[in-house]
Specification:
Blueprint lengths: L1 E4 L3 H13 L4 E4 L18 E4 L5 H12 L9 E2 L6 E2 L15
Antiparallel strand pairs: 1-3, 2-3, 4-5
Bound molecules: zinc ion.
């Protein structure tokens, strides 16, 4: 059951991590099928994220939508005031030293 596709493989991996953190098993399909580029529309070569258990598909779609459309204040990367590490906007604590976001 395809729940998400994007030409941006790291983004697909990111969405996969989010879903798995919610207990939804998923797999990335199609990321190696680049052999036919030029023969078929490029979108068919995009990596696809598939939910293993179709009963979780609707839940997964909601999570993906929230992951792709978060509140804007959470989108911006922020800098840890203790270790100066730059943290991606979706995290609320520094992954490096564990400090809470201000
Ligand atoms: Zn830090």
């Amino acid at each position: 059951m395809k729940v998400y596709t994007s030409p941006d493989l790291p983004m697909v991996g990111h969405i996969k991590n989010i879903l798995e953190s919610k207990g939804i098993a998923c797999i990335i399909q199609g990321q190696f099928s680049s052999a036919a580029v030029g023969e078929i529309p490029a979108i068919e070569c995009w990596p696809e994220l598939w939910v293993v258990d179709k009963t979780q598909l609707e839940e997964a779609k909601i999570i993906v939508k929230e992951a792709l459309d978060p509140p804007t204040q959470n989108l911006r990367p922020w800098k840890c005031r203790y270790c100066q590490e730059v943290i991606e906007g979706q995290f609320t604590a520094c992954w490096n030293c564990g400090a809470e976001r201000e």
